[in-house]
Amino acid sequence: MGVEVLGLWSPNPAVQFNRPPFLHLSPPTRAALVTSASLSSPPPTIQIVGGRSTPSWQGSGNDVYGGEADWIDFETDLYHWTKPLRPVQWYPGHIAKTERELKEQIKLMDVVIEVRDARIPLSTTHPQMDVWLGNRKRILVLNREDMISKADRNAWASYFARQGIKVVFSNGRLGMGTMKLSRFAKSLVASVNVKRRDKGLLSRPVRAGIVGYPNVGKSSLINRLLKRRMCPAAPRPGVTRELRWVRFGNELELLDSPGIIPMRISDQTAAIKLAICDDIGERSYDVTDVAAILVQILTKLPTVGAKALNKRYKIDADEFCGKIYIQKLSVHLFNGDTHQAAFRILSDFRKGKFGWAALERPPS
């Protein structure tokens, strides 16, 4: 809520905000802003309970997010930026059917390969995933590793290693990481069939399911593993619409599944990240609003900064908030079409034109 002036949202102390029922609004503390996550509990997300006394959109954009405290401020800023926007919700009809079928197929799986977006690993895991998997073996794949820095990869590897989870960083588009994933899968094949032989049973192909959010690269990963195009893949959510088993050699069967997301996304900061990273359908959000928030994020990321926007579009971003920047870009390149300007910024980010740009860091 706020007063809109020239496309900018500024706080208005006279306006009383209606607090969403899912938010726990208590006096903000450092401990409350960081939640330690565990993959044996509901999805690890950062709970926002307050904000800074001076919201960053009022500043000149000189502050950047670097250390742990700065990333807490990033989540706080993102909460304030998303609060006035229309909630992002996307749940196509085929996902409900897929979810029912997938829960039945998981019972037949020996191992589950969960694929997440390396830029937002916490936001791209289903809240019920741990319940569905139970005690089954899991391999976690963080796809699009080329879009985050080495420091971010090391931080996430350490975070998941402390929880005993095997992590593979991959680039499904170029095939990086598929050899390591193949070795992990084959090692699990051997262990499963050793147990079967000990019980007097014949060896069989091990069944592995590849699951995850829409457009995180599941089908591309399977195609790279098989070294041929067996599953339809495209850089947009909702391409895969049915479950399909494919054979990987004589030892492994892979299940390609459509992306699954919760019926309702209560964490709207996570929803905005999904929209920015193209992990949710475009019809669920306003492109201009999401691109405006992305501009404000990029100006404060130490790996990007306002200089990267200036270099790419020849427009200074130091003193402008996101919506004004998009308006200026639309005049500069698109004859005043703000939708095209917003889409260009989002498309450039998704293609890695701004370099390394992780939108999440591991909780402490």
From TrEMBL:
Gene3D superfamilies: 1.10.1580.10, P-loop containing nucleotide triphosphate hydrolases. The keyword Nucleotide-binding applies. Residues 99-263 form the CP-type G domain. SUPFAM superfamilies: P-loop containing nucleoside triphosphate hydrolases. CDD domains: YlqF (cd01856). The keyword GTP-binding applies. Keywords: GTP-binding, Nucleotide-binding. Coiled coil: none annotated. InterPro entries: G_CP_dom, GTP-bd, GTP-bd_ortho_bundle_sf, GTP-bd_ribosome_bgen, P-loop_NTPase. NCBIfam families: GTPase_YlqF (TIGR03596). This is CP-type G domain-containing protein.
